[in-house]
């Protein structure tokens, strides 16, 4: 098999293929490298040099500035809070709902599964959901970023299918030992589900960290903005500086590098967890392609 | 006769009894499911009931109970409004571009990755191309702004150096669609290969060996062994995509649209947001959203039927 690759058009193709894919890989990461490099560069360097990854003159001015303002730190705090709290709520709700739905003896199981399936096909939509959140008094509360999206039905169905595949003998054995359903779930099933729990914890965490839509919809109070909404205002909505979001700006902000620094700050958590994300998300895709 | 009747009643009674004893025996299951069930009722089914405001002149002061019924007035207004055709066209063209330009991209990339024999190099490439998938749309849009803006953006610096004039990517209607599709390709092509690479890994190696014995060269093997191995994955993803044809990503479109490119940028979701949330036309925007949901459900069910007709297992 390998002999064939060394000759003729196959060899040319191999060379082209290797180079092409290297270029593709560069195109995906170079924008991030520029953003990171640029966030450590001076304003004048950003204005004069076109593309660079390593700045001539290394400075942390942009970071000093954004961490001297309340706005970025506060937004980061809110994003972390929503991510941790939201992931916790989502995992508890998803696991406790998926387990009963995975038990074949449960009465009403099919009805519930159909109700869930239907809600995946059809929903109230943006406005009725908004009005509900408003009626519940959740506008401008961080719970509005969590509760309306607490269970992802796709995740729920995959976790349910996973529980179904666990050997039935385990359940029987723990029942004979006198465990209630909940004890079986807690002591037997959950310890066996660690990989699935890890995968979906990361799914939910990335969702909450990256979510912009719910914050846009439900939060008008700028002091409750998560980092994604702050970043959007800073980069995309013209004439909004960090100074506008707090009482007094300390000094004239280095504008371009500040934008880059806030992009970095919003990106770093994802990059830190990236090795785990890559592994577990791929697993999630595979789990999802097995139908429940 | 009477005996049989009695027996029947008895067995029905017993069944009922055993049903209740079953529920009692497994009462923990029902306690456990309560929070999740409450979530679905409150946040999925109450909003579905809230759709009735599409047939009312909903006023926040009067509430759902007191608001006046107007029947299909909002729908009539929407269908006779020039906005309707504009939204339909914008959504349709974006979806079509996505299908034509983005859909094949992960297939091609995974075929190319599959030809790399050096597994360390392949893994490195994968690690690189997966990165953007995990980034939020705000980050993708921000990076796009930094690169594409006029007066300092990197891409425009380069263009200005070669052509002499800058291109107004961010605010010209003719660049909106290519920009959206370009972002999707950049963000999701790498990640899209995951499922195809898995399908490629499961292609029977003996088929390759047999093809080599038969004298098939590399491209013939690609055509006769590899591609057929991907066919069912491609078909099912294509059908899924058709089922979600109208689902243009709200976040992406919202972030990249502005007052200058709105004529081509407005799609159903962003329109509902602007008219409903920004302008407060709750009933009208709910009607628009309902129209989109109904078309969506028809597409998904249609796609499922189609899949079953093709001998696939269907979507549900």
TrEMBL record, chain A:
Read off the Pfam families from this record.
BPD_transp_1
Keywords in alphabetical order: Cell membrane, Membrane, Transmembrane, Transmembrane helix, Transport
**Location relative to the cell:** Cell membrane
Cellular component aspect of the GO annotation:
plasma membrane
Q: Does the keyword Transmembrane apply?
A: yes
A biological process from GO: transmembrane transport
Report whether Repressor shows up as a keyword of the record. no
Tell me which InterPro entries the record gives.
Answer: MetI-like, MetI-like_sf
- Into which family does the record put it? Belongs to the binding-protein-dependent transport system permease family.
ABC transmembrane type-1 domain location, by residue?
76-277
Q: Where are the transmembrane segments?
A: 12-36, 76-99, 111-130, 142-163, 184-209, 258-277
Topology term for the membrane:
Multi-pass membrane protein
Q: What is this protein called?
A: Putative aldouronate transport system permease protein
UniProtKB/TrEMBL annotation, chain B:
Membrane topology term:
Multi-pass membrane protein
Q: Its GO biological process terms?
A: transmembrane transport
Q: Which InterPro entries match?
A: MetI-like (IPR000515), MetI-like_sf (IPR035906)
Q: Give the location in the cell.
A: Cell membrane; Membrane
GO CC aspect terms: plasma membrane
Domain ABC transmembrane type-1 per the UniProt entry, residue ranges? 88-303
State the source organism's domain of life.
Bacteria
Q: For this UniProt record, give its keywords in alphabetical order, as a comma-separated list.
A: Membrane, Transmembrane, Transmembrane helix, Transport
Q: CDD domains, alphabetically? A: TM_PBP2 (cd06261)
Which PROSITE patterns does its entry note? Answer: ABC_TM1 (PS50928)
Record field: transmembrane: 28-55, 92-113, 134-155, 175-201, 222-240, 281-303
UniProt similarity note: Belongs to the binding-protein-dependent transport system permease family.
What this protein is called in its record is: Carbohydrate ABC transporter membrane protein 1, CUT1 family (TC 3.A.1.1.-)
| Source organism per UniProt | Gracilibacillus orientalis
């Amino acid at each position: 098999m390998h002999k064939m690759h060394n000759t003729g058009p196959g060899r040319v193709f191999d060379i082209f293929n290797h180079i092409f894919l290297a270029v593709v890989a560069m195109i995906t990461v170079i924008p991030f490298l520029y953003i990171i490099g640029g966030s450590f560069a001076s304003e004048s360097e950003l204005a004069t040099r076109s593309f660079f990854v390593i700045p001539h003159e290394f400075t942390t001015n942009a970071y000093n500035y954004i961490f001297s303002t309340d706005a970025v730190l506060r937004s980061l705090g809110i994003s972390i809070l929503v991510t941790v709290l939201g992931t916790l709520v989502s995992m508890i709700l998803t696991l406790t709902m998926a387990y009963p739905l995975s038990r074949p003896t449960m009465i009403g199981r099919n009805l519930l599964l159909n109700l869930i399936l239907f809600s995946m096909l059809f929903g109230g939509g943006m406005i009725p959901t908004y009005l509900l959140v408003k009626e519940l008094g959740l506008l401008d509360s961080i719970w509005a970023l969590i509760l309306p999206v607490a269970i992802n039905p796709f995740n729920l169905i995959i976790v349910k299918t996973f529980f179904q595949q666990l050997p039935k003998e385990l359940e029987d054995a723990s029942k004979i030992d006198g465990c209630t359903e909940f004890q079986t779930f807690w002591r037997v099933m959950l310890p066996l589900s660690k990989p699935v729990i890890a995968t979906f914890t990361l799914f939910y965490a990335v969702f909450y960290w990256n979510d912009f839509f719910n914050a846009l919809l439900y939060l008008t109070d700028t002091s409750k903005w998560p980092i994604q909404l702050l970043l959007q205002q800073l980069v995309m909505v013209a004439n909004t500086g960090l100074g506008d979001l707090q009482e007094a700006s300390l000094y004239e902000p280095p504008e371009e590098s500040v934008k880059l620094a806030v992009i970095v700050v919003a990106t770093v958590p994802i990059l830190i967890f990236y090795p785990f994300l890559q592994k577990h998300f791929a697993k999630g895709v595979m789990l999802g392609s097995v139908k429940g | 006769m009477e005996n049989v009747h009695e027996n029947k009643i008895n067995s029905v009674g017993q069944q009922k009894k055993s049903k209740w004893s079953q529920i009692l025996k497994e009462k923990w299951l029902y306690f456990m499911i309560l929070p999740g069930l409450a979530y679905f009722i409150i946040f999925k089914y109450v909003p579905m009931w809230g759709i009735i405001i599409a047939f009312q002149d909903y006023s926040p002061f009067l509430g759902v109970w007191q608001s006046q019924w107007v029947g299909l007035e909002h729908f009539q207004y929407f269908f006779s409004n020039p906005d309707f055709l504009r939204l339909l066209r914008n959504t349709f063209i974006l979806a079509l571009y996505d299908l034509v330009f983005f859909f094949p991209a992960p297939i091609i990339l995974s075929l190319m990755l599959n030809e790399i024999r050096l597994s360390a190099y392949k893994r490195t490439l994968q690690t690189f191309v997966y990165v953007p998938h995990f980034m939020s749309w705000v980050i993708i849009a921000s990076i796009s702004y930094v690169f594409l803006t006029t007066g300092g953006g990197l891409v425009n610096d380069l263009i200005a150096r070669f052509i002499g004039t800058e291109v107004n990517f961010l605010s010209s209607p003719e660049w909106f669609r290519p920009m959206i599709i370009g972002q999707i390709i950049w963000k999701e092509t790498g990640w899209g290969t995951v499922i195809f690479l898995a399908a490629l890994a499961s292609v029977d190696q003996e088929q390759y060996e047999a093809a080599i014995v038969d004298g098939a060269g590399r491209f013939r093997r690609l055509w006769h062994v590899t591609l057929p191995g991907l066919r069912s994955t491609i078909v099912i993803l294509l059908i899924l995509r058709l089922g979600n044809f109208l689902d243009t990503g709200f976040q992406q479109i919202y972030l990249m649209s502005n007052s200058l490119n709105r004529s081509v940028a407005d799609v159903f979701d962003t329109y509902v947001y602007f008219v409903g949330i920004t302008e407060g036309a709750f009933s009208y925007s709910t009607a628009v959203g309902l129209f989109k949901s109904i078309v969506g459900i028809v597409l998904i069910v249609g796609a499922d039927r189609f899949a079953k007709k093709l001998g696939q297992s269907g979507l549900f």
